[in-house]
C-alpha cells in the first residue's frame, strides 16, 4: 500500500517577497507550511542578504520550475566603493581597500563593457558545487576555492542613483547564472577603487514581476484566520503561468485521460502542429501535460495531476 503524502495537494506559484536575512530554503519551508502543501520548490536562489522576488512552486507547479529558472531577471543593487570583501558583499571580511572614489562619468563609461555576453568568475562564497561540495562550505573551512569563469548574459545595466561618493545604485537586467556580487567586484577592480554589494533586491523573474509579490507577513496573517484556505488560494498564480511562451495544443476529455496515463495520442485535424519539441496540452483551459509533437503524435513528457483540489 502506497504511503499517503503529508499535506494538501496545493498547486500553483507563490511569488514571495523574500525578507532580508532569510535563506531561500527557509523561505520555501515556511511557505510550504503555511499552505500545508505536499511539495514545494523555488526557481532561482536568493542570498540571505538579498530580498525580493522569489518564485515558490507548490505541488504540480514544481514540474515547471526549470522554465522560471531560465527566465530573464532584474535586480536593484547598491554597491559600496573603496572596499572588496571575501564574500563580495557586506557579510565578508575586507580584503582590499582604496581611497579612490569613482565619478558617475567614470562608472557610466565602463558599463557598456559589462553588457551582452560577458565572462564572469562566481564568488568564492557561492552555492556552486566543487567535487560534490558547495563552494561556500569549502571557503568557510578556509580552503582556497578556484572557480572557473563562465559566460553570462547582461541585457542592461544602468545607474539609478548616487546617494554619496561611497555608494552607487544600479538596475541590472540579466540572464540565469549571473552573480551581481561578481559584477560589483569586477567593476570595482576596473575602476581601481574596489567594491562590494551592500544591498540587493530582485524585482523580476520572467514572467513574474514586483506586482505579483506578496509579503510573508501577509501570508502568515491569512493562515491565522482559520481553516478556510480561500484567502490563501487567492494568492497563488496558476501552474502554467511560466508556460506562456510554449505553444498550446487543445485536447478533448478522452485524450486528456490518455495523456495523464502516460500514453501517446494521435492528433487529428489540419491545425495540429507538424513537429514541435515542446508543447503544453490543455483540456478546458488547464494544463494536462508537457509533450512533444512528432508525425501527428503527441507524446507526454511531464504529466500534471490536477484531479484533486484541497478541501
Describe this structure in words.
It contains eight helices and 19 strands. It starts with 11 loop residues before the first strand and ends in an 8-residue tail after the last strand. It has three domains: 12-71 and 208-240, Pseudouridine synthase, CATH 3.30.2350; 73-205, Pseudouridine synthase, CATH 3.30.2350; 246-303, Archaeosine Trna-guanine Transglycosylase, Chain: A, domain 4. The longest helix has 12 residues, at 24-35. With 311 residues, the chain is of the alpha+beta class. The strands form four sheets. Strands 1, 2, 3, 4, 7, 10, 11, 12, 13 and 14 form a ten-stranded mixed β-sheet that branches. The model has no long low-confidence stretch (mean pLDDT 90).
Descriptive terms for the model:
8 helices, 5-stranded mixed β-sheet, single chain, Pseudouridine synthase, alpha+beta, 19 strands, 3 domains, Archaeosine Trna-guanine Transglycosylase, Chain: A, domain 4, about 300 residues, 10-stranded mixed β-sheet
Instruction: Give the full name of the CATH homologous superfamily of the largest domain.
Output: Pseudouridine synthase
**Radius of gyration, Cα only, in angstroms?**
23 Å
Basic shape = elongated
* Number of domains as seen in the coordinates: 3
